Amino acid sequence: MDFSLTGDHLALRDAVRKFCDGEYPLHQCGNAEAATLSASRWAALAELGLFGLDISAAYDGSGLTAVEIMLAAQELGRRLGGGSWIASNLPAAYILSKAGRDAQRSTWLPKIAVGRRRLSLAYLESGWRYDLAKPAVTAVQQNRGWLLNGTKINVPGADAADGFVVSAGDDALFIVDARTPGVSVQSFRTLDGRAAGHVTLDGATVSGEALITGAGRAVLQAAIDYATAALCAEATGAIEALIDLTTDYLKTREQFGQPLVKFQVLQHGIADALIDLEQSKSMACVAALAAGSEDAGQRARLISAAKVTIGNAARRVGQWAIQMHGAMGMTDECRAGHYAKRLLVINQMFGDASYHLQRFIKHMAQGNGNES
Amino acid sequence: MKLEFSAEDEAFRLEVRSFVRDHLPAWLKRKVELGLRLERADYVAWYERLYERGWSAPSWPKEYGGPGWTPLQRYIFDEEALLGGAPRIIASGILMLGPVLMAVGTQEQKARYLPAIRRSETWWAQGFSEPGAGSDLAQVRTTAVRDGDHFIVNGHKLWTSYAHFCDMLFCLVRTESSSKPQNGITFMLIDMKTPGITVRPIRMIDGGNDLNEIYLDNVRVPAENVVGELNKGWSYGKYLLGHERTGIAGIGSSKQQIARVRALAQAHGLADDPALAARLGALEIQLMALEFTGLRMLSKNQESRVPSVEASMLKVRGTELRQEIYELLLEVAGPGALPFDEAALRGDQGLVPPVAPPDLMSLAANYLDSRKITIYGGTSEVQRNLISKAFLTA
Ligand SMILES: Cc1cc2nc3c(=O)[nH]c(=O)nc-3n(C[C@H](O)[C@H](O)[C@H](O)COP(=O)(O)OP(=O)(O)OC[C@H]3O[C@@H](n4cnc5c(N)ncnc54)[C@H](O)[C@@H]3O)c2cc1C
Predict the structure, then answer these.
(1) Looking at the domain covering A119-215, what would its CATH class be?
(2) What letters, b where the CB count within 10 A reaches 16 and e where it falls short, cover A101-117?
(3) ipTM score of complex
(4) pLDDT per position as a tens digit, A18-47
(5) Is pLDDT above 90 for A368?
(6) Which of B202, B337, B357 is closest, CB to CB, to A331?
(7) In which region does residue B185 sit, left (phi positive, over 0), alpha (psi from -120 to 50) or beta (all else)?
(8) A352 vs chain B: nearest CA distance in angstroms?
(9) Is any Cβ of chain B less than 8 angstroms from the Cβ of A329?
(10) Fold type of domain A217-366
(11) What region holds the Acyl-CoA dehydrogenase/oxidase N-terminal domain (chain A) (predicted)?
(12) In chain A, what residues touch B337 (CB-CB under 8 Å)?
């Protein structure tokens, strides 16, 4: 057991931090991005090499692991950066890396690694909560291709995607080019100001090569776990930044003739937030290490434990930060709210703390040999 | 002692229930139940009906045109109205200014302002807070300087709820500098249309703009608009905040939101979820304990250890409990809470088709908005300071 960071890890973390400090000015963190800004930031993130971090060198990536993804995600979290990458593009590329055909990989991965193509994960459907159910999106074999019908919802970055990894039919995953006739996106923003969309497939016909052979719910679940681990890291970074900015506020805001930070009860609040932060950092490491595990039960148990810990920490610290800012914390101008909203979105993605507690309990029982 | 309400109180409950059922406009009930944003016209639509029935100022005594209800009746009214889907009574004229004018206002002030408040014709904003005067309210710096039969007011008020749709402002201004900041503050009424007043909306965390800032630049206020004695405004302000806090405990609102959790759980297939049932049960118990605490405190010879801060106790527990209910609502919403459509939240035509189920899409905004209740009316931290201080110095 060892949680040490190597020199390379520190160098990566510092590079991403420096980048984020420049790219995401603190006083604007969390503001909705106009399409042009979002595109230029995407190009800059690509240049930094983030999108290729965990893509194999054979496809022009860096061939690194979930640990490096964790370090990058944490830094993005500190400045509310990264757009749809972690929640959507990262797991889509993961699915291709793990289960894609050679032709699919060589078509997509090198371009994803340099930011020239975006592939989004479209799996959620209306009426679902967090369990992967059998998709209502249908896939009917037709000639040598497939006919897809149905709607996927809440797809982060849908408007800017060149393609989607879509779960459909009994247990299949497809790559669907966004320009395919019959594919349309209803764009909107999520609570955190980020772009998302519902993707409708209305008689969209894809070729036989679009099927990701051998990939089904198990791979999709692994990809979701992988992205969940990265979101845990992102949330941890956001928690850390939120503690810093809230503490700065308490140091400068004066009431009753002294800085607020002098009130001991508020110091205790800082202490609780710091304890939450340190636990989140640990569980983000655990999640990153578990993300690569082939043992699905073990992976589920550890990643759910991380999502519970970090989900609760994120909720508490988000609420605390707003409370500490007083009425200022309720305004759009104050950054505390933007962090709290991103944390809230992360909590509701891929399962909230209650969901993951149940999932943990289920796998805990299985770990004890009770397979019922 | 007995657990049941009296027959008269039960009859009163039914009377309120059927009144709400028969008179609350369906469109307004829907807006409230979906958690959409309400504007002045929305509130007025309901208050006018209450006015016709003589119920628009539930806490006012008969002599000022109120229904003269007992505390228990007020409580029953609040609960029944909210459970029936009515909007809360938010008008500061009714909740805050009215009681102050009744206590210390002149005959002319009472005659001029109270009836218009009851009729919802005049809406009042509360101008207490300033950039430097939040929890430490005594630091107000807005000045009022005597000039013949007027005062000239200069300053900056912040966080003024609903100022953008209010006609009048009651505020605390400094009329004398004093070594003790609580002295030298005066309670004053200002017409929002007076030259020199600028209102700027503040965009909120949930995209709404309930709050505003107000700049006062050489605003001329007639001297007759001073309430009570000059330089004694602090005590009137404190009296008023006691009234504000009692309402913020919000038992009725909590019941309304718990009913919403149940309805949503039913509609979205979670009615049999044991984890949700356990959380809901725990919240119901907390609410029951709070409710009976409020009722017990109204009973004879049942005063608490520190009667002066009962409202603070109910506020702390009531608001924190209500926030937990909003957390649970968010949980029930699941992924449906994520799409954010501002127009739809206002009740306008939003994105077509709707980007989330209409009963789920306001829950994240409602949750965020609920964070304010432990801040306004005196923060939870400050209430706890007051409670322990009152006990320790008793
Ligand atoms: C939605 C909303 C509506 C409002 N409407 C109005 C209105 O209509 N009119 C009006 O005048 N005002 C209004 N307010 C302002 C409200 O009264 C103030 O926000 C409140 O008094 C707190 O002041 P502050 O925001 O400056 O916070 P601060 O006083 O700066 O407090 C910041 C944090 O420090 C804590 N703190 C401060 N002092 C202490 C202490 N001694 N010990 C421990 N902790 C402490 C607080 O609890 C808080 O968590 C409104 C506020 C909100 C959020």
Answers:
(1) mainly beta
(2) beebbebbbbbbbbbeb
(3) 0.97
(4) 999 999 999 999 999 999 999 999 999 999
(5) no
(6) B202
(7) beta
(8) 7
(9) yes
(10) Butyryl-CoA Dehydrogenase, subunit A; domain 3 (1.20.140)
(11) 7-115
(12) 191, 348
